[in-house]
């Protein structure tokens, strides 16, 4: 995260560190056995690679630890069937945990209710959202050993279409920005949060906190049906 501040203990218990055979991504705990991630974190792995995947849950440190820290292994992953590796369209995937977290764990909600959906209509602008992760604090810089958070504003699709051209697919993506603030390398897969709802998945950008380019995120509301169907077909 560029321009972030340290999160407090227990502030984001549902933001997950993904250690994927040494590769760092973020994720969102959305159920006892499910973590929502970006497909392109997983695009170059096979199912057999899950033996080297570790999830660190409810921790501030990239290396785990803390009073309520939990670590989990992964049983399998499911990438959206229409994920485009070149342009990061449909950049959404689900991890199924090898064993469920405790029932009283904190989860991020999917944007299923009408209020959340209304907040995220493509025409709605200037919604404040929170980003969080352990990624680099500058483009090409060092990752953060502790969880950082920042506030960004969800922008109108027209702004991002002007910045990115046809790469930006407004129905499937949203973009967000704030001065000198952005997600960065290593934050990929982590959430954009509005009122306890995961509305976006960190996906791509040009640089980090470049004033000419907003950060682009998978628009979760588009994929709720796919997520719920995938959960039903892959019981934890």
TrEMBL record:
Gene Ontology molecular-function annotations: serine-type endopeptidase activity
InterPro entries: Peptidase_S1 (IPR050430), Peptidase_S1_PA (IPR009003), Peptidase_S1_PA_chymotrypsin (IPR043504), Peptidase_S1A (IPR001314), Trypsin_dom (IPR001254)
GO biological process: protein processing
Residues in Peptidase S1 domain copies: 1-232
Entries under SMART domains matching the protein: Tryp_SPc (SM00020)
Keyword set includes Protease: yes
Localization in the cell: Secreted
Gene Ontology CC annotations of this record: extracellular region
Record keywords: Disulfide bond, Hydrolase, Protease, Secreted, Serine protease
Pfam families the UniProt entry points to: Trypsin (PF00089)
Primary location recorded for the protein, binned into one broad class: secreted
UniProt entry tagged with the keyword Secreted: yes
Similarity field: Belongs to the peptidase S1 family.
Protein name (Swiss-Prot/TrEMBL): Peptidase S1 domain-containing protein
Lineage summary: Eukaryota, Metazoa, Ecdysozoa, Arthropoda, Crustacea
């Amino acid at each position: 995260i560029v321009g972030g501040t340290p999160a407090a203990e227990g502030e984001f218990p549902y933001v997950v560190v993904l250690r994927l055979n040494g590769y760092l991504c973020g994720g969102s705990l959305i159920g006892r056995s499910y973590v929502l991630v970006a497909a392109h974190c997983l695009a170059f792995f096979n199912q057999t690679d899950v033996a080297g995947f570790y999830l660190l849950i409810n921790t501030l440190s990239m290396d785990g630890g803390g009073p309520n820290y939990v670590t989990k292994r992964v049983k399998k992953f499911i990438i959206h069937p229409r994920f485009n590796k070149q342009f990061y369209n449909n950049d959404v995937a689900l991890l199924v945990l090898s064993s469920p977290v405790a029932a009283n764990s904190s989860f991020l909600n999917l944007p299923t209710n009408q209020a959340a959906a209304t907040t995220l209509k493509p025409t709605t602008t200037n919604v404040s959202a929170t980003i969080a992760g352990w990624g680099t604090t500058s483009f090409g810089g060092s990752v953060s050993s502790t969880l950082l958070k920042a506030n960004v504003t969800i922008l109108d699709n027209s702004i991002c279409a002007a910045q990115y051209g046809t790469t930006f697919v407004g129905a499937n993506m949203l973009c967000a920005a704030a001065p000198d603030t952005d997600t960065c390398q290593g934050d990929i897969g982590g959430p954009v949060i509005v009122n306890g709802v995961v509305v976006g998945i960190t996906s791509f950008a040009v640089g980090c906190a470049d004033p000419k380019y907003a950060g682009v995120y998978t628009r979760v509301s588009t994929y709720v049906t796919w997520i719920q169907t995938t959960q039903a077909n892959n019981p934890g």
